[in-house]
Amino acid sequence: MRRALSWLTLTGVLAVVLGAAVPARASELVMFERRGCAYCLQFDRDVAPIYQKTEEGRRAPLRRVDLSGGVPADVALAGPVRFTPTFVLVDEGREIGRITGYASDEAFWGLLGALTQQGAPNRP
């Protein structure tokens, strides 16, 4: 009986360790944009060059979508996207929250921080 318990304990520990080694499907930040969008261009100058180097960028890589092409089939939105840019935080294909518009890099980082803390999964 004791040997069976030791084996079960070892099996459980290995399952946890191996499970942790498999990366979970990451969140992503989907940016809906349109050609000629002045605020999208401002985002491109202010934030885009550094986004992937940040903690937020590692947790939720940026995916750009041209709104005129529609919503990707693998993204379930809570509502329609009407303005560009609109940044939609998505986890496993479902919208967690969004930022509509772009005013400045300070506003963007503040809103993204609030968005990720209100309900986004905390994944590496």
From TrEMBL:
Annotated InterPro entries: Thioredoxin-like_fold, Thioredoxin-like_sf
The Thioredoxin-like fold domain is annotated at 29-112
Q: Name one Pfam family in it.
A: Thioredoxin_2
Q: What is this protein called?
A: Thioredoxin-like fold domain-containing protein
Q: Which organism is it from?
A: Xanthobacter autotrophicus (strain ATCC BAA-1158 / Py2)
Species classification: Bacteria, Pseudomonadati, Pseudomonadota, Alphaproteobacteria, Hyphomicrobiales
